[in-house]
Write a structure and sequence with these properties.
alpha/beta, Rossmann fold, 20 helices, 20 strands, about 50% helix, rod-shaped, binds adenosine-5'-diphosphate, binds magnesium ion, transport
Length: about 650
C-alpha cells in the first residue's frame, strides 16, 4: 500500500498569549491522498486557518505527528521547511497576500526566485500563467490597481509558479463577489482535474460542494468526514523524497540571487523615497565629513611640515643649558661661546656653524622709532637659513673683524622705518642711539611655523652686536649646517664631543636636530588629524544608526511581505540577504555621494585658500566605513526579519 500524501495524527495546537493558553485544535487525525480535492468546513473560529497553516508547514503543531509523503516534518529545520513549502505547496489566501510594491508579474515570480529559476524562464512562465488566467494585459499592474478577483487570480498564478503538488486555499472566495468567486472555484476544480491535490477551506457550504470530499471541523475537532471517493488518479505515488534539497540549483542561483536582491532592494527603497533620501543624507554627511576632515587635517600637517622643511633639515641647533632643561630659552645661561662655533665649523661634514646672539633694541630713522630684535651673527647665516638679501649685501667677515657699525634690515623693519617707497640702502639708523649704516635688506621670509614674523629682525656683525648693542659674550644659539645628511647622527655626536671638550666635560648645552624635530611635529599633526577623523567618524556612526533605524522600520512595515516570501519558500538566508542588501545599497549609494560631496567641499575649501591634501586613503576609508556601517547596522534588522515565524509574519498588519 502506498502511503497517503498527508497524514495527520492527533495534531493539537495551543496558542500561548502571555499567561493565557488557548487550545485551538484538539487532536486532529486525517489522511489526504495525492490528487484529492478536499473541502474543510467549519464556522468562523473553529480552527480552519490554524489547520491550514499546519498543513502548509507555516507553523508547527504543539503535539501530534504530521507526515508528508512519509516524512515526519517535526524533523525538518527552518530551511528544510522553507524548501518543502517552495516545492510542494501553493497558497491562496482570503486577503490575497500580494506584495504591494511589486507588479502582478513580480508577485507571481517570487516563488521562482527562491527556487533559483533563471530570469528569462521565470518571466516567460509568469507571463504564461497570468495570460492563462486572463490577466495578460495586467502584467505590470500593482495589486492596488487590480480588482479583488484579479488579485486572487494573481495569487493563484503565484501558487502555480513552482508547479506545486498541493494547493492550499484558505477562504479563497471570501472577499470576492459571487462571479469572481465562481471563477476562482472553477480554477480550483480545473487544477484538481490536472492532478493537483487541492485543499480548500471555507465556511460556505456552496463552496464546499465543489470538492469531492467534505471534512467538517468544529471547535478544533473533526466532526464529519465524507471519506475518500474512489481513489482518484492512479499511479502518482507520492513517496518521493524532498528533504534533500536541490542544493546545486541553489548554489548556481546564488549569484543571480544577489543581482535579484539588489533589484528588489532598489525597488523597496524607491517605494519609500523620502525616507530613503533622509537616511542617505545621514550617510552622505558622515562620509563627506570624514573625507573633508582628513583632507583638511592632512593639508594642515603638510603645510606645517613644508614650512619647517623650508628652514632646512640639514641643520643642528646648539643651545645653551643642559639637555632636557628649558632654562636656555630665557637666555639666563651663558655657556655657549663664539669659540664653540669656531670649533664646530672645523669639523668634517660641517659646512658652517652660525653663531647667533639675540637682544632687543630700539631703532630710529628720521622721526620713526621701532623696537625689534637684534641678531648678531656671522656671514654664513644666509646660507644656513637659505635666506638671501633682497637688495644690498649681507654682512661679511671683514665687517666682523672691524667691529663695523653696519646692519642688514629684515623686511618688516625696513618697512616700518622707511616705508615702502624710500630706498634705505646707505642710510643710517640709530640702534640704541649708535648710528649703523644699512648695507642690505633681507628678502621677505614670512611667518615662522610657530607663527612669529621672521622678518621682524635686524642683523649686525657678531662682534659689533656683542660689544656695542647686546653687551654679552655668550651666544643664544649656534646653527650647524651639515653637508651629508646621512651622516647627521655622527656629525651631531662630533659637535657634541668638541664642545663638551672645550667646556671641560660639562654638558651645559643641548643639540637638536631639525630632522627629528620634524618627526615630532609630524606626530603632533597626525594626532590632530586623527582627532578630526574621529569627530567625523562619529557622524558616520550616527549615519549608521540612521540606517539601522530605517531598516528596522522597513522590517516592521514589511513584516507581511516577509511572511509572504517565507510562505512561498524563502529561506532564512534569502530574507537575511534581502535586508542586508537593502542596507548595503543605501550605504553604498550614500558612500559614493558622500565621497563626491566631500571631495567637492574640500576642493571648494582649497579654492578659498585652506591647505588641503587629497589622498586616496581617507576616501577609501570613508567609503569602507560607510559600507561596514551598513553591514553592521543592517544586520540586526535583517536578522530580526529572517527569524520571524512565517505565520506570525503573515498575520501582521
Ligand atoms: P478560523 O480560520 O476557523 O476562523 P482560526 O484557525 O483562525 O479560525 O482561529 C481559531 C481560534 O484560534 C480563534 O479563536 C482564534 O482567536 C485563535 N487564534 C488563531 N490564531 C491565534 C494566535 N496566533 N494566537 C492566539 N490565538 C489564535
Ligand atoms: Mg480563517
Amino acid at each position: 500500500m502506498s502511503q497517503p500524501l498527508i497524514r495527520l495524527d492527533g495534531l493539537t495546537k495551543t496558542y500561548q498569549t502571555g499567561e493565557l493558553a488557548t487550545t485551538v485544535l484538539h487532536g486532529v487525525s486525517l489522511d489526504i491522498d495525492e490528487g484529492e480535492f478536499v473541502a474543510i468546513m467549519g464556522t468562523s473560529g473553529s480552527g480552519k486557518s490554524t489547520l491550514m497553516h499546519l498543513l502548509g508547514c507555516l507553523d508547527k503543531p504543539t503535539t501530534g505527528r504530521y507526515c508528508f509523503a512519509g516524512e515526519d516534518i517535526a524533523e525538518l529545520d527552518r530551511d528544510a521547511l522553507a524548501s518543502l513549502r517552495r516545492r510542494t505547496f501553493g497558497f491562496i489566501f482570503q486577503s490575497y497576500h500580494l506584495i504591494p510594491s511589486a507588479t502582478a508579474m513580480e508577485n507571481v515570480e517570487v516563488p521562482a526566485i527562491y527556487a533559483g529559476l533563471s530570469r528569462n524562464v521565470r518571466h516567460a512562465r509568469a507571463e504564461q500563467l497570468l495570460t492563462d488566467l486572463g490577466l495578460g494585459d495586467r502584467l505590470g499592474n500593482r495589486p492596488s490597481q487590480l480588482s479583488g478577483g484579479q488579485q486572487q487570480r494573481v495569487s493563484v498564478a503565484r501558487a502555480l509558479m513552482n508547479d506545486a503538488r498541493v494547493i492550499l486555499a484558505d477562504e479563497p472566495t471570501g472577499a470576492l463577489d459571487s462571479q469572481s468567486g465562481k471563477d476562482v472555484l472553477a480554477l480550483l476544480s480545473e487544477l484538481h482535474q490536472r492532478g493537483k491535490t487541492v485543499v480548500v477551506i471555507t465556511h460556505d457550504r456552496e463552496v464546499a460542494s465543489h470538492a469531492d470530499r467534505l471534512i467538517e471541523i468544529r471547535d478544533g475537532r473533526i466532526v464529519h468526514d465524507s471519506g475518500k471517493p474512489e481513489r482518484p488518479l492512479s499511479g502518482s505515488d507520492a513517496a518521493t523524497g524532498f528533504a534533500a534539497d536541490d542544493i546545486k540549483t541553489e548554489r548556481r542561483a546564488a549569484l543571480a540571487d544577489t543581482g535579484e536582491a539588489v533589484r528588489m532592494a532598489l525597488r523597496a527603497l524607491q517605494a519609500n523615497l523620502f525616507r530613503t533620501v533622509l537616511t542617505l543624507l545621514g550617510i552622505v554627511i558622515g562620509v563627506a565629513s570624514v573625507v573633508v576632515m582628513l583632507a583638511v587635517g592632512n593639508g594642515a600637517r603638510q603645510e606645517v611640515l613644508d614650512r619647517i622643511s623650508s628652514l632646512g633639515t640639514n641643520l643642528l641647533l646648539v643651545r645653551p643649558g643642559a639637555p632636557n632643561t628649558r632654562r636656555s630659552v630665557d637666555g639666563q645661561t651663558n655657556t655657549l661661546m663664539p669659540a664653540d662655533a669656531e670649533l664646530a665649523a672645523q669639523l668634517d661634514n660641517v659646512m658652517s656653524a652660525v653663531p647667533e646672539m639675540n637682544g632687543r633694541a630700539t631703532l630710529r630713522a628720521g622721526n620713526n622709532d621701532y623696537q625689534t630684535q637684534i641678531t648678531a651673527t656671522s656671514p654664513e647665516l644666509p646660507a644656513a637659513r637659505d635666506w638671501g638679501v633682497a637688495s644690498g649685501v649681507f654682512l661679511n667677515a671683514e665687517d666682523n673683524q672691524r667691529y663695523a657699525a653696519v646692519a642688514v634690515l629684515g623686511h618688516t623693519v625696513a618697512e616700518n622705518l622707511f616705508g615702502d617707497s624710500a630706498n634705505p640702502l646707505g642710510e643710517y639708523v640709530l640702534i640704541n642711539n649708535v648710528p649703523f649704516q644699512v648695507i642690505g635688506i633681507m628678502a621677505e621670509k614670512g611667518a615662522a611655523p610657530w607663527g612669529s614674523d621672521q622678518d621682524d629682525v635686524v642683523f649686525v656683525p657678531l662682534n659689533t652686536g656683542s660689544l656695542r648693542l647686546i653687551g654679552q659674550r655668550h651666544l643664544n644659539s649656534i646653527t650647524v649646517m651639515i653637508d651629508d645628511l646621512s651622516q647627521a647622527e655622527l656629525t651631531q655626536e662630533a659637535v657634541r664631543q668638541v664642545i663638551l671638550q672645550s667646556h671641560g666635560g660639562v654638558e651645559d648645552f643641548q643639540i637638536r636636530n631639525m630632522a627629528s624635530l620634524l618627526d615630532n611635529i609630524a606626530e603632533t599633526q597626525n594626532t590632530f588629524t586623527m582627532l578630526l577623523g574621529s569627530i567625523a567618524a562619529i557622524s558616520l556612526l550616527v549615519g549608521g544608526i540612521g540606517v539601522m533605524n530605517i531598516m528596522l522600520v522597513n522590517v516592521t512595515e514589511r513584516t507581511r511581505e516577509i511572511g509572504i516570501r517565507m510562505a512561498t519558500g524563502a529561506r532564512t538566508r534569502h530574507i537575511l540577504q534581502q535586508f542586508i542588501v537593502e542596507a548595503l545599497v543605501v550605504s553604498a549609494i550614500g558612500g559614493v555621494l558622500g565621497v563626491l560631496v566631500g571631495l567637492g567641499f574640500a576642493a571648494a575649501l582649497q579654492a578659498l585658500g585652506t591647505a588641503i591634501q587629497f589622498t586616496p586613503g581617507p576616501v577609501l576609508l570613508a567609503f569602507g566605513c560607510a559600507f561596514a556601517t551598513g553591514l553592521i547596522f543592517g544586520y540586526m534588522p535583517a536578522h530580526k526579519a529572517a527569524h520571524l515565524d512565517p505565520v506570525v509574519a503573515l498575520s501582521a498588519d
